[in-house]
From TrEMBL, chains A, B:
Keywords, in A-Z order: Cytoplasm, DNA replication, DNA-binding, DNA-directed DNA polymerase, Nucleotidyltransferase, Transferase
Organism: Paenibacillus harenae
Domain DNA polymerase III beta sliding clamp N-terminal: 1-122
PANTHER family: BETA SLIDING CLAMP, DNA POLYMERASE III SUBUNIT BETA
Domain DNA polymerase III beta sliding clamp central: 135-251
Cell inner membrane keyword on record: no
Name recorded for this polypeptide: Beta sliding clamp
Location in the cell: Cytoplasm
GO molecular function terms attached to this record: DNA-directed DNA polymerase activity
Protein function: Confers DNA tethering and processivity to DNA polymerases and other proteins. Acts as a clamp, forming a ring around DNA (a reaction catalyzed by the clamp-loading complex) which diffuses in an ATP-independent manner freely and bidirectionally along dsDNA. Initially characterized for its ability to contact the catalytic subunit of DNA polymerase III (Pol III), a complex, multichain enzyme responsible for most of the replicative synthesis in bacteria; Pol III exhibits 3'-5' exonuclease proofreading activity.
Family statement: Belongs to the beta sliding clamp family.
Length: 377, 377
């Protein structure tokens, strides 16, 4: 293998795939990045087995020349640190006969140990049954609005995922995540679809989806999502992720949305988020924040034993229904309110032990559910 | 106590004194901030016993009105978090009869538990023997250039300090710090002095000096430094630090500077710093970087077993003397080079086991010494 690549392109490619590195590699080779060069392209791969990130650069191009095909695996940590610290210009990467990667740029000459590219785990053969095309900006937005609500506990693996379901005969995609306490749901339009088979609802690890969507900087391009029996592939502009699906049934959430509400308020999102943050300061480790809605208006309150208490009046755009007091996790409420990216919010309540529904518009496909805390202390 | 103060002023004052909070308070009251209001001012105090930070705001003024004198101590963590999260405007702080601090701003009403201000440790009576006036910009610069070289180990307490010595009959102040491996020395001019007694050399905790100087944003003002028998006081624009001196003799460092040099090079600081950084990437945990100076020029090199090695040529402005190879701690060299804030550096060597001298100008009062590592591995 012998390639010449601009520092900018290699740095850009490494940034895209770095999230694919396992934090604790189960095999030494997984701490490496696979470099594979042929006449047409350079492919960089990182793998954590259940998820593989790839970045491809075309050759010959202004940024890359492949002088000699070949492949190798080199320590990800060192490669990333070195490329980050190099000034601009061209980097030459050349395998020598004794298995050393010779890396030269400007006045710097690095010689790095490598691993056998044949040992690097291959991605499984992918059976592309069905695929859709979705705008990158839309995908990034809905992932940001939903994935935070997934569980981080492995107690119920399916809840660490985001459920993806095709709706409206394939014209839209619904994302849903819940950790059992809070739930986020959001629907986005699909640019184009190619249905080979009716699409089942699938579940993908929330962190994988977040890692992929973070790298979507070109909001005008689209991602092709291809659904397999056990895997899912996301592809855009040379960057791709192949991830295993999480097996198991995602819990049904339809019955969580009550048909009618006893109390409903509408308020300004930004000032409510700030108020929840200020009141949460005295909510202690339990993070219990109370909200009291009366005919006079609404107020948030919290008490931290031995420290003090706080009360803050909340301005309402309007209010309808009965007086009610509910308690909830202040951090969870703030996460939800920040995720909505809406100027105004509707909060609907049916009782102090019933789910709190947060919506950005009446009867919208975007909704959040927060399970209240039964008693204040 | 009852005061009204702008959120901006209180936030600004709290930022100044927060570094005076102990990380592990030996008494519960030291986790608090003392607020003391009288007809003329509000004083905020944080104390870690060996160091006390105070901030004073005059009253009445545009930012502060003292409605009723008094003092109290309130949890620093909660006060800082609350004030940070409040929007702009005026904050009213009022002690109620039951020892609760009533704090109101906008729609938020906090009621905080307090501690008895009489329990807060008093600063010792200060015997102001001698004082000098130094420009804040100069003080901030020289502290940044010297304090990093102090030791962080308590094995020799005096080395955790910065030595301050008056020079040139009181027209300049020399700061010096060393951890035994590296040494930094810098001299700054004094604006004005008032010598009651001849001034001994004193030693002050490097971290205290850094904490104080970080807050010096107004480079045009001056700090008055007052020297006592056991303490030192720094004062500028209502902000002050009183710190205990570190007892003990600072090691003599005069004989470390050799009278003549075998080899001398001059180079560009920024490109040398970057080169040291790039080579250090393969220096491993031992951080051993080699520098080889020959008639052809200079190069840096490092080897990390099982990973690889690196060589980088260093451009020299000029070179004089014998060929030599020395090894040093790459991180320490980079810290020194970055601290110099000079465009060009002179590096002087007398042998591979003799101190490496780094200067910003020939025969300057600013110099750095780095003890080499005897062998590469």
């Amino acid at each position: 293998m012998h390639i010449e690549i601009t520092r900018h392109s290699l740095h850009h490619a490494l940034q895209h795939i770095a999230a694919g590195l396992p934090s604790r590699p189960v095999q030494p080779i997984l701490a490496g990045i696979k470099l594979q060069a042929d006449a047409h392209r350079l492919t960089l791969t990182c793998s954590k087995l259940t998820m593989t990130l790839k970045y491809q650069l075309p050759s010959p191009s202004e940024m890359l020349t492949v002088q000699q095909s070949g492949s190798t695996v080199v320590s990800a940590r060192y490669l990333i640190d070195i490329v980050r610290s190099l000034p601009g210009g061209v980097i030459s990467l050349r395998m020598t006969e004794n298995g050393i990667l010779h890396m030269q740029s400007g006045q710097s000459v690095y010689r790095l140990a490598t691993m056998d590219a044949n040992e690097f785990p291959d991605t499984p053969p992918f059976d592309d049954r069905t695929s859709i095309l979705i705008n990158n900006g839309d995908l990034k937005t809905i992932v940001g609005q939903v994935a935070f609500a997934a569980s981080t506990s492995e107690a119920r693996p399916v809840l660490t995922g985001v459920s993806m379901t095709m709706r409206e005969g394939g014209r839209s995609l619904k994302l849903l995540a819940t950790d059992g306490i809070r739930l986020a749901a959001r629907t986005a339009c699909i640019d184009a679809e190619d249905f080979g088979n009716p699409l089942p609802s699938i579940v993908i690890e929330a962190k994988h989806l977040t890692d992929y969507s973070k790298m979507l900087t070109d909001a005008a391009s689209s991602t092709q999502i291809s659904f397999g029996d056990h895997d899912i592939r996301f592809q855009t502009n040379g960057f791709s992720m192949l991830a295993s699906l999480i097996p198991g049934q995602f819990p049904s959430t339809d019955k969580l949305l009550p048909p009618a509400f006893g109390t409903e308020i509408k308020l300004d999102t930004a000032s409510f988020a700030e108020a929840v943050g200020r009141v949460s300061l005295l909510a202690g480790d339990s993070r219990v924040v109370g909200m009291r809605i009366t005919e006079e208006g609404a107020e948030l309150f919290a008490t931290s034993p031995d420290i003090g208490d706080v009360t803050e009046a909340v301005a309402l755009a309007w209010r309808t229904g009965e007086a009610i007091t509910v308690y909830f996790n202040g951090k969870y409420m703030k996460d939800i309110v920040n995720a909505t990216e809406s100027e105004q919010l509707y909060i609907r309540l049916t009782g102090r032990e019933k789910p709190i529904i947060i919506e950005t518009a009446p009867d919208d496909d975007t909704y959040y559910i927060l399970t209240p805390i039964r008693s204040a202390h």
